[in-house]
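S.,

Sequence below, as promised.
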Amino acid sequence: MASSTAPQDRNKPYPESWEQVAELRVFRTHATDWDRLATWRADMWKRGWRLLKVTSDEVELVAVFGKTKTGLQSPASL
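The prediction came back faster than expected:
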């Protein structure tokens, strides 16, 4: 029997606490296409996005990219 949290896990393949500190993007592709996206991944890196997590199954590869939220500054740094 499937868990009731399975749809949420598919939509958010990362811990909920990550949303508090970073903007997140979930990218889905076939595992065979991942290697062909090297230039795209390098461009994401240059724009400040970091690859946080990669998972895969028989059908697809799921990558989570994150960028620290700009509004998160400590009061001491203001």
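Strands lie at 22-29, 50-56, 61-68.

Coffee later?
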